[in-house]
Amino acid sequence: MDGRAYLLEQQSRIGAALEAALPPVSEPPEALHRAMRHLFFPAGKCLRPALVIASAEAVGGAASRALPLAVAVELVHTYSLIHDDLPCMDDDATRRGRPAVHVAFGEATAVLAGDALLALAFEVLARAPGDAPLLLVASAELARAAGSRELVGGQVLDLAFAGSDAAAIEDVHARKSAALIAACTAGGALLGGADARRVEALRRFGRKLGIAFQIADDLLDADQADGCTLLAALPPEAARQRAEALLCEAESETLELGEAASPLRLLARYAVRRAE
Ligand code: GRG
User: Fold this and answer.
1) Mean pLDDT of 177-204
2) Kind and range of the H or E run holding 99
3) Counting C-beta atoms within 10 Å of the first and last residue's C-beta, which end of the chain has fewer, N or C?
4) How far is the CA of 259 from the centre of ligand 1 (A)?
5) What is the CA radius of gyration of the chain?
6) What's the first-to-final CA gap in the chain, in angstroms?
7) Dist. CA 117–CA 40, nearest whole Å
8) The pLDDT of residue 132
C-alpha cells in the first residue's frame, strides 16, 4: 500500500463521521449550516484526520478511539481555510475547486460558519465516548495548536511578514501549519494509548512533517514566491532538499514503532512528495 491508497481508505470513514457531526442543512439557520458544509462534501485530502488515525494505529491503538479527534481536527482546519480565504486575509475566491465560502454565501456568513466549525470541533471532543481524561488532554492540545501561540499567532506573523530569513519563515510554518499537524500525531498517539515518551516522539514527528509539508505546498504553488515562503530565501532545489531532510528526521522518530508505523511513514512521504 502507498500513502495515497491509505489516505483514500481513511477518507470514506472520516467523511461519514463528518456527515454525522455536522448539522443538517434542513435545520435552521439553513444558510449557515449549508455554508458550514460547503467545503466538506467532497472534502479535501483529509491528511490531518488520516494522520490522527495512523498515529493511533502506530502505537497499537484502535482507529475508532481516535476518530473524534480526527473529526475535530478537520473541523478546525476547515474553519482556518474559510477565514484564511476572506478578503481581509489572503483574499482567495476559490477553495477546493469551488467558490470560497465568502464568495458563495457572503462574508458575514463565512465568518460565522468558521466560528461555528471551531465551536463544533470542541463539542465533538467533549461528547466523544472513551477515556475522558485522555480526550480532555487531546482537546487542550488542539485548542493550543489553534490558538494565539500557534495557528492564529502564525497567521498574525504571516500577515506582517517581510524579508527572507529562512529560520523566521520556518517559525511561521511551525506555528501556522506544523502545530496542528503535531496536535494530530501527538493526540492520535495519546488516544491510541501511547506512553508519554512515544507521544513526544510523535509530536516531534508531526512538527517536522508539518514544516516539510508547508515547504512542499509552497513548491507546488511556486508562482507565489513572494510572502512567507522558503522560496523567498532559497532556490527551489534547496527548498526541496530541506523538505526531504525534515521528512527524513521525522521518519527517524518512528523507527522504534516498527511496522505499525508504516502507514504513518507512507502518509508523510505522500504529503511531502505529492505532485498536486
Ligand atoms: C485565519 C484563523 C485563520 C487562520 C489562517 C492555517 C491558516 C491560518 C490558514 C490556512 C491556509 C494555509 C496556507 C494553511 C497552511 C497549511 C496548508 C498547506 C493548508 C492546505 O492544507 P491541505 O493541502 O488542504 O491539507 P486540503 O484542502 O486538502 O484540506
Assistant:
1) 98
2) strand 98-99
3) C
4) 30
5) 18
6) 19
7) 11
8) 97
| Residue among 48, 177, 211 to mutate when testing ligand 1 (max atoms within 8 A of CB) | 177
Q: Which domains does the chain have, with CATH numbers?
A: 3-273 (1.10.600.10)
Number of CB atoms found within 10 A of residue 96's CB:
15
Classify residue 255 as exposed, middle or buried by CB count within 10 Å of its CB (0-12, 13-18, 19+). exposed
Model pLDDT, residue 163: 84
Instruction: Give the percent of the chain with pLDDT over 90.
Output: 93
Alpha carbon distance 116, 108 (integer Å) = 12
pTM over 0.85: yes
Helix axes 47-58, 63-84, angle to 10 degrees: 150
Asked if residue 7 lies in contact with residue 270, where contact means CB atoms within 8 angstroms, the answer is yes
* pLDDT(224) > 70: no
Task: Classify residue 101 by burial, with Cβ atoms within 10 Å: 0-12, 13-18, 19+.
Answer: buried
Question: Does 11 contact ligand 1 (Cβ within 6 A)?
Answer: no
Note the pLDDT of residue 45: 95
Strand 98-99 to 94-95 pairing: antiparallel
DSSP conformational letter for 226: S
Residue reference for cell 522518530: 253
**Cβ neighbours of residue 228 under 8 Å, at least 6 residues apart?**
157, 158, 161, 169, 172, 173
The C-alpha atoms of residue 5 and residue 1 are separated, in whole angstroms, by 6
Average pLDDT of 157-163?
91
